[in-house]
Amino acid sequence: MEVFLFSMFNGVLYGMLLFMLASGLTLIFSLMGVLNFAHASFFMLGAYFAYQISKYVGFWPALVFAPLLVGVVGAAVERYGLRPVHRFGHVAELLFTFGLAFVMEEVIQMIWGKVPVPYDVPAALNFAAFTWRGLDYSAYRLFMLVVSVGIFVALFLFIAKTRVGLMIQAALSHPQMVQSLGHDVPTIFMWTFGFGCALAGIAGVIGGNVLGTEPAMAITLGPIVFVVIVIGGLGSLWGALIAALFIGIMDNMAISYDIALFPIFAMFGVEREAEGIMRDLVDLTTGGIAPVLPYLLLVLMLIFRPRGLFGTRDV
Question: Is 313 part of any domain?
Answer without folding.
Answer: no
